[in-house]
Structures are given as C-alpha cells and as structure tokens.
Amino acid sequence: MKKNMMRLKKVQFICLCFLCFSIETFAQSIVKGTIISAEDKQPLPGVSVLIKGTSKGTVSDINGQYSIEAQQNAVLRFSFIGCKTVEEPVNIRKTVDVMMAADIKNIDEFVVMGYSSQKKAEVASSVVTISADALTDVTTSDIGNMLQGKVAGVLIANASGQPGNAAEIRIRGTGSINAEADPLYVVDGIPGGTFNPNDVETVTILKDAGATALYGAAATGGVVVVTTKQAGKDQPTSVSLKTSIGTKTALFGRMKMMGSEELYYTQKDIYSKTLFKMMRPATLLEKDFDWTNAAFSSGKVQDYYLSVSGSKGNTGYVASLDCYNEDGTLINTNFEKISARLNLNTELTKDLDMAIRVSYNNSNDQTVSSWMTLEDAYKTLPWDIPYDANGNLVRIDSSTRPDDQSDWYSQDKRNMLHSEQYNYAKSKSNQTAIDFKLNWQMNDWLSLSTTNRFDQGVTKYVTFIDPRSYNPSYAKGYSSNQVSDWWSYQTTEMLKAGKSFDQHSINGFLGYEYSYNLSSYTLASGTGMPNGMSALNTCVPYEIGGNEVPGASWSAFAQAQYSYASKYMFTASFRSDASSAFAPKKRVGYFPSSSVAWVASKEDFLAGNDVISFLKLRASYGVTGNSNIGSFEYLSSYALTSKYEDVVAATPTRLANAYLGWESAYMTNFGVDVNLWKNLELNIDLYNIDNKDLLLNVPVAPNTGFFDIKQNIGCVRNQGVELQLTSTNIKTKNFGWNTSFNIAFNRNEVTDLPTRDDGEKYVFLETSDGHRQIAKVGQNIYTWYMPKWLGVDPANGDPLWENIIYDANGKEVSRESTNDYTQADQQSVGEATPLFSGGFINTLTYKNFSLNINSNFVYGNKLYNAGRESLDADGAYLGYNMLSLDNGLGWNRWKTAGDVATHPKLVMNGNKASNSISSRYLEDGSYLRIRNVTLGYQLPKNWMKSIKIQSCKIYVTADNLLTLTKFSGMDPEVTLTHSDYQLAGLYDYNYPVSRQILVGFEIKL
Amino acid sequence: MMLMTACNLDYFPSDAMTPDQLKSDPSSATYLTDGNYSMLKDVLEYKGTVNTNYTYVRQLYQLTEFQSDNVSLSGRTSDPLYEANCYKNNSTLGNLAYFWWCSYRIINSANSVIETITDGVSTTSDQLKGENYFLRAFCYFNLVNLYAKPYALGRDNEGVILHTTSDTSGEKKRATVGEVYDQIVSDLKQAIVLMNSSRGDAGYASKAAAQGLLSRVYLFMEENQKVIDLVTNDMLAGADPSSKLEPTASFPQYYANTRTSGETLWCIAQNASDDRAQGSIGSMYLNDVQGWGEVYSSDPLNDLYERYPNDLRYTSFIWPQYKDETKWVVRFPVYNAADDCRANEIIVATPKGDGNYTFTYNGKTLSTETRLDAGNYKTLWAKIDIGDGNGEQYVQVRATKQIKDRFSFPIYYVKKFSYQEGNPMLCSPAVIRWGEVILNRAEAYAKIGGKNAEALNDVNTIRTRAGLSGSELFSASNMHGYSSVLDVVLDERRLELSFEGLRTFDVYRNKRNLDRQFAGVQPWEIIKYTDNKIQYPIPLDEISVSGISQNLGY
After folding, report:
1. B316 found inside a domain
2. Is residue B400 part of a domain?
3. Number of domains present in the structure of chain B
4. For residue range B25-77, what is the model confidence (pLDDT) as tens digits?
5. Cβ of A911 under 8 Å from any chain B Cβ?
6. Which of A124, A282, A997, B147 sees the fewest Cβ atoms within 10 Å?
7. Are residue B19 and residue B131 in the same domain, yes or no?
8. How many CB atoms lie within 10 A of CB B455?
C-alpha cells in the first residue's frame, strides 16, 4: 500500500513539471478587474490576487481594483480574509471582475469540535457555534457573560457585579450534587488555557455526549470549544483597532432602603412612647445620610484592542494586544487586564506544519476590602453621619462617636467609609500558556500530530487592614499575602486518518493524552505594622501556611466516522481516562459514545423542495465523566495543619473510600435541523441525561466524628427540549432584519439517593446560616426546604406558618397555621432552577446603520432573599436600616385588626421570629432583560479611501438597559451553584450588576 | 513525550499524613493528643462550611451560660445563641450540631490514642493516655449535661451515645444518663492513676485537673461524701484551701493569666495565634475596641453583687458603661405582648436624697419607695402601669447613674474572658479551677448534714479571697437573711462562677426553678426544672442518619 502511494506521488510530480513547461508557451498580457463583495456589492480593497502556481501577485486598491500581468491561460486566485477564495481562469480576457462571497466555511459550514472539525451539515451531535461578532456585543472581560442568552440550553448567571467576575455556566441543567458542574473549556484543542474574547474566532458549545464523550472525564458539564484567530494562507496584512469607552452605574432594581424620615416614623410604631423619645430624639430627622449612595458610584469601562494578522511566505501570524479596564460601582473595586497573543503557523516542509501559540494575561483587580462594606452599605442607619464637623470621616469602634460624644445608632459600631479610606483587597495574577503543535501529513489520508501546552501562572492576593481603621477581627492591623502558583503540562498525540472513495467517506483518529499539574499555595500574614504600611517586613508575624498539591491524569481515545454521500453519518468514539483524584482501584473510567445523522433533504423525495431546503435528523448516545472533586478525597488522613500551644498537632480529616471513582453522565439526544424557505433555520433537540454514581457527600452520623463520606451513589436526571431559531426576516438592498431566538426547558429530578433513617431518600444542601435545600428522590435537585409562610394574621398582625399535624404513626393528619415558629414544619417550598430560559436577538441594518438588540429571560425559579432576614425584619433589628415597602410589589404593613397585609405588625426585637428562615423570603426569580442594545454606523467606504482605511465602524452600546422582574432584591441574577458557602438561588447582599453605556469604534487598515 | 508519562498516579498530600505514615512516627501519640486539645478551640469545617463563631469552647460557654439567669441578651441576633438564650431551640441549629459533632470528633480521636498506648511503658506515654481519658470524660460530661436530663432527675433517663473504642460502627443507641456518668467516673479514675508528669502549663490536663473534674462529677451525682473525701484527702491533702487560690491582690488579673495561675487546674489554652476576635467567647460580653458586646450581666445577678459593693468579683469583672455619672435614671421592664419579652423604660430621675427618686412616666410624676428584704437589702419599687392590662401595680425599679443602653438594656460588660496578653478578645478559659473545687466541697458539706460550719467556712474562704471581710462573711449566727446553708452556697457559686458555665446546671440539678423574669430578649417566665426545653435537642444531622431517639418536646 505504502509503495503504491509513493509511486502515485512520483507520477504527479512529473505531470506537474510538464505542466509548468507548457505554461511558458502562452503570451503575457495585463489583466484588470474590480472585486466586489457579494453581500453589499461594495468594492473590496486589500484582496490578494495571485497567479496560481506562481508567487506573483498583487493586492486590490481602495476601489477594489487590481491590475496584473498574467498569461492568457493563467488562473487567478483571489483571497481575502473572511471571504471564500475564488479561482478564475483568465481565459484570454482583459477584464476579470470578481464577486467574493463571505466565507461561511469557518462559521457556518465547518464546526470546530476540539479534536477535529467537521462539516456542519454532517455533524451528528448537538453543537452550537457562535461567531466572534455575535459574541462581543456585550462589553465585559468574561466570555461567559458574552454567551448569555445566545445558546439554547446554556444557562448563564453573573451573580456578582465585581468587574472581572466570571459568570457561571450550566449546560443542560445540573446533574451533580456535590461535584462541580462547570463546563470544560477547550482552547485551541487543549483543555484549559487562557484567551482574550477579542481574539476568539468561534466558540462552539458541545452539548450532547455524541460530541462531549471524547473529553471523557471532564465533560459532564458540557464542553466549550474556543478557537482563536489564525492567519490563512496568502492573507494580506491586516491591522485592526477597536476601542470602546463608557460609563457604568449600579442597578438596584426594586431595592430601596428607608430614608431618615420614613425610618423615624416606622420606628415610632415599634418603641414605646418614653423609650422612643429617649432612643430616637426628634433631632434625628435633621440627619439623613444615604449609605447606599455613598457606597456606590458610577465608573468607567475602557477597552483597547489592536491586532495584526497576515502571512508571509510559509508563515502566518496573528498578534494582538488588549487592554481592558473597568471600575467597579462599589467603592474601591476595579479590574484591569492586559492580554497579548501570538499565533504562528508555518509550513516547515510540504508535509510538516508547525503551530506555536503564546498567550499571556496579566490582570489586577481590587475586590471589596471586607464583607462589611456591602453589608453596611444597606444596614447602616441614615442617622449616622460618617463625617465629623470638619468633613473628615470618623472612626467608630463603640456606640459613642469620638468627635462629639453623641450616639452611633447603628447596630454595628463601625464606619465602613472610614475603613475604606485605608483598607483593600487586591489580587494580581498572570498566566502564560505556550502551545506547540506539529502535524505531519504522512500521506493524503494519514497524519500524526503532537500538541503540547505549557501553562503556568501565579496569583497573589493581598489584603490589608490599616491599624487606623476599625476591624472587628484585627485590632492592630492586618496584612496578608497569599500566593497561589501552578504549572501544568499537557500533551496530546493523535493519529488521524481519512479517506473517501465513491460516495463513501471514512475517517477517524486515535489519541493519547497526559497531563500533570502542580499547584502550590503560600500564606504569610502579620499585624502590628505602622499606619499605612502593608509590607510584611513591617509586621509582626501572625500566621503562616502553605502546601503543594500535585495531580495527573492520562487518557486514550479513538473515534471513527463513516458517511455515505453526505447523507448518512455514523460516528463512534471511545475514551478511557485515569485520574489521580480517585482511589487506585477505581482510577480508570471508560466513556463510549455513538451518533447517527440522516440528511433527509438529500433524499429524492425532498430534492428541490421549496419549503424544506435542508433537513437533518440526529441521534446520539454517550457517557461522560466528572472528576471535579479536588485531590485526595478517597484517602483517609490526619491533617497536620492545627496547633495547640503553638505546637503542631494532628487531627483526622475524613473517612477513606477505597472505591471512590468516576461520576458518569449517560446522555441520549435526538435532534432535528431544518432550513425552511431558505431564510429560516430551526434546531430542535430533546435530551435525557442520567448522572449516575454521583460523587456524593453521603451523610454519616456525627457521632462517628465525621459528617460525611464521599461515595459514588445516587442518580439525577435532566430532561429537556431546546429550540433555536434563526431567521432572516427581511433582506433587501438597504434593509435587513435577522432574528435569533432560543428557548430551553429543563426538568430536573433526583432519581436515586441513599436511604435515610426515616426511610426517605434525600440529602440536604445547606449553608452555615441554616439556609437549606433538599435533594430528594422525585424532586428537583435544588428544592428549597424551610417552613412554609402562610402570611399575616389579619386579627393581630402575627406571622403565620404551616404546622403539619401527624398522628401517632407519623401519618399526616392535617395542616394548620401557627404563629409559633418552633411548630412550623420544614417542607419543600419551591425550586431554585428555572422552568425555562432563553434569549431573543434582533439585528437590523439599514444602509450603513446597524442595530442589535439582545435580550435574555429566565422563568420559574425561586430565589431566597436572605438579606430581608435583617432588613425586612418587622422590628427585630432596631439598629439596621429597613427596606422600604414602597417597591411596586404591593407590600403593606399590618397596623390594625382586620388589615390584610403582607408584612406582620412591627414589634420591638421582632414579632414572634417573623424574620426567621421561611418561604416568606422566597421570591419569584423570573426576569426578562434587555441585555444589550448596539447602534452602529459603518462609515461610507469612499470617505475612507483618502485616508487609506479599509473600514471604520462607530457604535454606541448599552448593557443591561432594562430588567423586568418581581424580585425585590437588586438583581435576580443569582448564583446557580451550590458550594461550601452558597446555595443555588440564594441572594444575600450581592454586589449588583451594572448598566453600561459605551461608545466605540473599530478601524481596519 | 509518551515516555515521560509512565502512569504512576499515586500522589499524597503535603500537609497531612495517612494513618500508616502517622503510626510509624514516634511522636504520633503527642501529635494526636495535641490535636484533641486543638479541636477544643479551633474553628473546624463542618459539612463543608466554616463558621468563625463555631468553636467547641465558645459553644460550650454559650450553651451553658446563656440559658441561665446571669445574662441578659440586649437584642435579636442572627447567631443561634439567641435561640439558646430564649430556650427556642430546634434540632437544625448549627451551634448544636457543631458542638455535638465536635465532641464526638474529640472522643473518637481520644479513643484511638487510648487504644494504641499500652499502660506502663513510660511516664510520658501514661501521661498522654491519661490526658485522653480526661478529654473523653470532659466531652462526655458536657454532652450528657447539655443534651440529657440532670443526673439528679434519674439515672435511667436517656443520655448520649457512648463510644469507648475507635470502632464507631455497630448499633447506635443512647446510653442512659447513669451509664454515661459511670463511664466519666471510670475515665477520670484512670486518668488520675495514669497522669504523673507535667507537659507544661495549665493548658495540659494533669492529675489534679482530673481530680477537680471528678469532684464536679461526684457533686452532680449527689455523691457528696465522695466529693468531700476527694477534695479533702486527695486534692488538698492537708493544705489550706486559701493557699490554692489566686491571691486577692492579683485576683483581678486572674482571668487574663489562667494558664500560669496556681488556681487553674485546667484551662483550654489559646495563644495569640488563636485569637478569634468577634468569634471569641469574650466578644459577646465586651466591646473594647473589638467585640460585639451584646450580652450583659443580668439585673438579678447585678442586684446580688450590689449587696456587697466591695466584692472584687463585681468591681473587677463587671464593667458598667456610664454615660453621665452626674445624672440618675430609673428603669423598669414594660410589658410587650407580641414577643413576650420585656424591654426597659429608662427615665431620667431626680434623687430625693433618702435613696428614693422621682420621675415622670406617661405624664405622671412618680416616686420610688424603698423596701427591705429578709437580709436587709434595699430594693426600689414604684406603682406603675407597665401596660400588661393590670393597671397600676407595684413593680421593681432599678436606679443607677445614667448608663448607656443597647435597645433599652443597660450595658454591664463582663471581663472574665478577656485581656490575656492585653488582648480584649483573648483568654484561656479555666474549665476547672480551685475556686470551684472548694465550692464543690461546700455544696457537698451543705447537703450531707451536720457540716454547715464547714460549708460556710469554704464559702468564707472564697469570699475572703474576693476582698470581703468581717460582717460581709457568713457564720451560723449571721446568715444575712438566708434560711439554709445550701442557699448560701448556691448563691456563692453563682457569684464566684458567674459566666463560667455552671449556673444553669446548678439550678436544675438541685431541682430548683429558674426565674428569668428580668429585662432581656428572653421570654418573661419561670422555667421548671422538669421542663423538657432545658435539654437541647439532639441535632437532626445525628437523628436523620443514626436514628437515635430525640429528646422529649422536640
């Protein structure tokens, strides 16, 4: 076989030589022409024109015109970034005009799937690709934020307004209870790495196991494949500059704290007459400080992006630099990031390609200096003025103000604004990732490649509490440096083969992967420093800490694909993973998958059909894994991290599980892709995912000295329907209107868990504050579990909860209302996951104007507003400011017998525990948000000619313009994740998101 | 490159040892024993969350003392200490779950040390083993007293789960109170035999510490003769009790120096690096630059102290926060229908010069009247309508210099858990000290019959150390209005051991009711010693897995 191949090559070479000789005999002449864009019929400058088979070429001018000397039988090759390459034989013509169509190969026709790319029409799995343009409408440094509302079945929440905060992403619901459910990022074919959103060529979301199973152990949360820009062959140099600048303001939604007067007269109803006179003198009415307003201010957002790309000889390059700078709306918070990238690809020999990619990120952020800042922004009373008579901030550490010996009325004796003058929490990180790839095209059907990534980074987190500031934990100041550094090495070796004959096409690959990572952590802190000095050299040592965590994994995988006439497609893949996270006996996991697709529109019965221009049916099944549990969880050990009388001591950590292994997700997917009337594309997917052998923290009785043991037990099912619709509603010469709509329904159900002592199958997810969700068989994974609120007793203004009465056998007899919280029964009262979510995007163009309106929505989730336990507490906390009831939700306070009210009677120190955890504070989390509106104007090309600019676009863009919601907190976008400190859907003094308005321009040279 | 990847995936943590690694280390028993001590004061992660308020020692001092009549909580707090203070507990509260779990964590870890050390190998290993017996006894003692009925109410009541080996599998049920007490006594006896050397300051358990704790255990068991014998023969062995106490001159600094004081039999040592700041025991009691300062010495306790204003225990450890020492206020609790607790009215008053005051309330000018009780102690009363529907009636009024208040509750800070190394939030609380041991014997004397003089002698030893003398002391002929010596002893225990976690137990185990009718956020009530709500509920985390029975009333 090999020998035959060689012979074939030789024959080709000889023929080629003959061809060259024969070309020499034709006459040369000048060929001219105009190149225009197929889309808008505008001239295309900068198009590379090359005589095929030679290195002779030219570039079109600003009017899209070119002129070249060529043989009469030559073939001209026109190439331009973003357009399909056109080859046109001269054919004795003097004028060769060319119309270039946009190259939809990258974005529409080919889908990058990570290890391979595939023709979109032939993909048998559920994947969605987002192009760079569709991605970067929203201004943020985080790609998750950009994806929000754009892909069916991908739920994204930005739970914090802290600049630089990464959004949480859930693809097709949550199937894991204790293991993390985040998707895997694959950047340029390798898991992990770093990238700047502006450098992104495409983002592909792999949703079903037909595609994700190849990523095996890490793919249960879905896979996000990011491809960065790479220069094409013969690409002329192109320089692009993008700038946007704007301002942002915090969004408070319906949340409004009381002002001085409202609070004064509200508290008048709480205190007795004499006490009120004494505690709340009328002079308080003269004081009114808006703490929320003082804590938040508007800020700037700026982004500058410069990129150069092109190719020279055998080498293509893309180099970019990006500076992003964002102020926070919360006092003393901000984020800045510099990223740079160089992607080089070169043909070393005819058969050997090399790619080197270097990316570097450096970010600095300042996060809120203390948990107290946000809390005090809402809680502090308007009667406490932070300034003294001279306008200086006063330090508060007791109930007496030092400046005039008057009272500090707020519950907590501190002036957050005073501390904010000095204190900070900053982090600095940088990351460098270097990819090195070699691809050897062994012959026309076989290739061997090695892809390697060296990734390393360091994050330094510094907190400083100045001795001048008041801090309840550190009386003499505190400075701490925490340094985390990591490095990892990953290598992927792949042997790919592909061959077509007649209508048959077979391809596949074998691969091997290995990765090693080592992270280490160092902490040093000190106290007792002089004012303003944060360097550890100036401190008395306080604490030290540090450790090193190694980990490694290897994998082997294979995929085979067969297609017949691009009509019937079969794919099968298999992956095997071994990870050091698991017990030696259970280290290896196996992840098979298969998918089939049928392009029905290629069948005779649909050929030439005017309505259905394309129809594909897809089905896939596969298994993926989850190993997101951290290191050593299978191992019993004694931690040496504690001390007694400053001597190292050992304490038991956890119970061993010698059988701890993979959590697996079994996913079945059915999909239909239809194109109707040539302007409507519809994708529908149905899926069922069964997560089995969950990595579950199974409770053990506390009398063992432990509280749980990690076991592979339990199942969670996610079932859903996703619909993605893209349509071109209007397309005329001057006017265009495109719509993209997506919606996804996901139903989550826990299907198996270990049986508890009471015969029921459930586990609790809880915070240390007592907020609780129950994951119970037959219910949603995130079901709120708390006493049920039955409103306010009209007779006396008492709070009412539901008391379930049981008989002697434990059988429910009846349900009654009670005003005694200790009698209120905990029960399932709502789900934290939405019934459906989606997005709606409209793009309108008129001549040179474009308008993009992007909205997203979430429906049917319940959020728990924990902040109300102290801010809407009916008199329980007289030292905290209160939420104004005037928020448009029809809230009202019980005053006299017979009042039908939402809020109980005000009572000093609280009305019968009315502010205890109950469904009273559980609220509808549905919302519809205008995520982004962008109005752009493309400067006419003929204006640009004189200054040699290819194109220039100016635009105004606004993020989070409008949010419709019944949620009483600042923003309904709340965490989706259950972790050590939070529950999905729990809202508690969150950092609000912002409204941003920016202007920008984009110039291409 | 594939060669680099030989598939060894065995990695181990850099800051922990596997049980096998630890066993092979000659110091393993020391590491583990110190680990057991450290769990008393460290913030441990429980069920994935770290709550900086949750240390064994903070919960111990709050769960015991906040149920008593010694403290007044000045407002609602989201910390479950509120529920403890108000007897509104439920089985899901984090403080209860943490304390239960942490107790067993220490017990089980102590069990594994006890199992691995053979008696008599060396003085050092015997000492370590004895310390673990001691720690196990200490943990069981607190568990059984917090989660079960007092021993005095019956040996057969349900106690707690009893583990005496490191094997925690097998059937789980609650042992009886009697069985748990028997185990505690047996453990302490073992500890007394084994501990014959010292590992350092009072932060490490010792023979005397085990004896001191045993004297408390015997007292709770009503084994009064055993208390007397143990204290007199084994502990004092002829020494003068007063010689064991911190001298009067340095007594005001005792609580800052527990680790080095001869009075301390055992304390939970906390170093500067263990500073828990807002999460310290002292934080709820004191605001001095740091600290929440929200729990105050209660009115009835202050009244008791104020009978003898020179008592060092009042002048040194209670710290009233006056706003204006030239002005006077009167105050009295007023009825509050909705939440059943009573806040104060505080009214600026005019002294009449004879010890009474005039003041204006609801537009009426009122005057206090002085009453004398059996011991000739003065109290002030006035006829006031406090809004409870009973119209004008005589209520007790308290008059002080104008004092600061928090939501109408006057601020009397407590300094017993502060100022170690000058840090207002740092202390090494003395769990067992000579002051208590002497009063343990006093109570035993008072109960055994015919030993009233000895009982009063012990009381006077304690009072003398507190700076009292002459007529301030007790004698058979001067009982200061008390009719029984036991009452004298119990009030002396209250004065001496206030805030140290014994008051609630002392009341209920003596089958007395607890009067909580004083200003504070707790319900206005008298709690019967038989009330089921006195016992904390077994945490739901335990019941829902092991299925042991819940306490009555939950």
Report:
1. yes
2. yes
3. 2
4. 889 999 999 999 999 999 999 988 889 999 999 999 999 999 999 999 998 88
5. yes
6. A282
7. yes
8. 24
